[in-house]
């Protein structure tokens, strides 16, 4: 039977089913593509045995492991919808996700059984199972018992393959519905654009509950029959040690900044690597330059989101421009519009980024109004990211729309101010936020991570006043040890805004 997404993986099996899917990482090292077929088939059979029907959700909050990936593929083969949950979610949060998505099966770590079994029961989930980091658990036993030939459940391009909840930094987290073609088209496009082949060995140190690790990294490798160095988590020293065995790495910017702190990072250790990719959060231009100076490689930065998969990418051959996320990927349309009037904006004008293509999701799970509000009549999705497109067609992101600061009626794009601060000697990085201010509505506020010898608040303000319009200059510069980040390395500006909410209250300014 044709199963649109899994057919992509199946197509690479004929070449050589004895190819290893994972290398060098304990448990996973023994699995070949033939094993991937057998294990994913066993999970599919087990799920069908549990009563899972096409379109049913299979929710999973489990640690990263090869079995996790086989369960993902088994769910797809069973015609069901894979729904991974961030391992950091509490029982309270899991209760919301299970209540909202109404899965047929919920799978979690055996260590969380006591806390989560009642939650699953409370949400009316019929089947509760476990899977741990070493690939053991009640679901694995069910899969072992069900092993045998499995004939894939037929699924077409428009059927759902997965629901991924957005991180939801404002309001309720929304379930992005992703179809077989959303995922398959993006895997095919990335494989071609980034020139992946069966000879590639990808360092995979990303979490698998997020689109970056689950779809961008995993699907691209599976679509080309390559191999992964599948690591439970990112550890800079371990990754550096494994680099000579790999040909590519996909990471968030934090991977690169942490690796740059390792004295052993140089061109020799990165000799076998042909491609370093960064995404999920902005890569500082300085990191791009430092990386090139140390390894000889220009990091390829790309841009995407849970709802849209990947939208733009710097080119494989051609200029990889620091501070940009490159042109639209083949088949994807990207435009910038005036957020108020919807008018299409020309070269270099900053506005709302909108995208359309086979990569763009079908809508938010059971939120038709929210979905309708975020799509234009001509099918473009409003990303919520502000940016511009330059004369060469490269997209520049200036920040999330909700991070835009409005001070005294003027719009301030945080990125512009952050770039100025980051360029100062001794500054490691900065985040510019709007904080409630009686006079201005919001007061521009800079939160800065600095090394010893960096300029102090007064000196930073003096420099900025000479370079930026007065309304863009921060009212205050605060120094911190580290910026708060989520699991994907994104700076949590909402946390900063909450922490400093009282900064300009009377008596404090
Ligand atoms: P997520 O849905 O968790 O993948 O988050 C998507 C958001 O991450 C996008 O809407 C952007 O705001 C941000 N993002 C992803 N890649 C980049 C990038 N290369 N540069 C800047 N922001 C990015």
Walk me through the structure.
The protein is an alpha/beta fold. It is built from 15 helices and 22 strands. The longest helix is centred in the N-terminal third of the chain and has 17 residues, at 33-49. It has helices at 4-10, 33-49, 66-77, 91-101, 113-122, 138-146, 180-193, 211-222, 236-242, 253-260, 285-295, 368-374, 414-422, 457-467, 493-499; strands at 57-61, 81-84, 105-108, 127-130, 160-165, 175-179, 201-204, 227-230, 248-251, 275-278, 300-305, 309-313, 333-337, 351-356, 363-364, 381-389, 395-400, 405-407, 410-412, 427-437, 441-450, 476-479. It binds adenosine monophosphate.
Q: How confident overall, as mean pLDDT?
A: 94
Q: How many β strands by DSSP?
A: 22
Low-confidence stretches: none
| Structural class assignment | alpha/beta
Quick structural gist:
This protein is of the alpha/beta class and 509 residues long.
Task: List the keywords.
alpha/beta; 6-stranded mixed sheet; binds adenosine monophosphate; 15 helices; single chain; 509 residues; 30% helix; 4-stranded parallel sheet; 22 strands
């Amino acid at each position: 039977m044709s199963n649109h997404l899994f057919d992509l993986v199946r197509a690479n099996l004929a070449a050589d089913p004895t190819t290893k899917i994972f290398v060098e990482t304990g448990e996973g090292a023994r699995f070949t593509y033939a094993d991937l077929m057998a294990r994913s088939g066993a999970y599919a059979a087990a799920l069908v045995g549990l009563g899972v029907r096409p379109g049913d959700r299979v929710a999973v909050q489990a640690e990263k492991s090869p079995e996790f990936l086989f369960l993902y593929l088994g769910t797809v083969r069973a015609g069901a919808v894979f729904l991974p949950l961030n391992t950091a979610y509490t029982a309270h949060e899991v209760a919301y996700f299970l209540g909202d998505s109404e899965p047929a099966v919920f799978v979690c770590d055996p260590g969380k059984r006591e806390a989560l079994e009642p939650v699953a029961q409370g949400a009316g989930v019929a089947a509760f199972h476990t899977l741990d980091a070493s690939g053991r658990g009640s679901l694995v036993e069910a899969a072992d018992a069900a092993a045998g030939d499995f004939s894939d459940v037929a699924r077409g391009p428009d059927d759902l393959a997965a629901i991924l909840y957005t991180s939801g930094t404002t309001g309720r987290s929304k379930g992005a519905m992703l179809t077989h073609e959303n995922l398959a088209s993006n895997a095919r496009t990335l494989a071609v654009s980034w020139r992946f082949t069966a000879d590639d060995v990808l360092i995979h140190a990303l979490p698998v509950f997020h689109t970056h690790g689950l779809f961008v990294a995993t699907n691209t490798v599976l679509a080309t029959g390559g191999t992964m160095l599948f690591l439970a988590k990112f550890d800079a020293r371990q990754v550096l040690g494994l680099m000579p065995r790999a040909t590519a790495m996909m990471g968030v910017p934090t991977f690169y900044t942490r690796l740059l702190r390792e004295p052993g990072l140089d061109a020799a250790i990165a000799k076998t690597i042909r491609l370093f990719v960064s995404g999920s959060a902005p890569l500082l231009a300085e990191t791009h330059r430092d990386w090139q100076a140390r390894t000889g490689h220009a990091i390829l930065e790309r841009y995407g989101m849970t709802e849209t998969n990947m939208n733009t990418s710097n080119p494989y051959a051609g200029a990889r421009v620091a501070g940009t996320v490159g042109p639209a990927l083949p088949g994807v349309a990207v435009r910038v519009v005036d957020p108020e009037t919807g008018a299409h904006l020309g070269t270099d004008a900053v506005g709302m980024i909108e995208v359309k293509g086979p990569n763009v999701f079908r809508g938010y799970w059971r939120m038709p109004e929210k979905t309708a509000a975020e799509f234009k009549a001509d099918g473009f999705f409003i990303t919520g990211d502000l940016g511009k497109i330059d004369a060469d067609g490269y997209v520049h992101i200036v920040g999330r729309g909700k991070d835009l600061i409005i001070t005294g009626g003027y719009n301030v794009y945080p990125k512009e101010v952050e770039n100025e601060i980051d360029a100062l000697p001794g500054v490691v990085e900065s985040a510019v936020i709007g904080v409630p201010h009686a006079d201005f509505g919001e007061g521009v506020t800079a939160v800065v991570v600095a090394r010893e010898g960096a300029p102090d608040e007064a000196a930073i303000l003096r420099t900025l006043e000479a370079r930026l319009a007065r309304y863009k200059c921060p009212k205050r510069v605060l120094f911190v040890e580290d910026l708060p980040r989520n699991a994907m390395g994104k700076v949590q500006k909402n946390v900063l805004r909450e922490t400093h909410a009282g900064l300009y209250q009377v008596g404090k300014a």
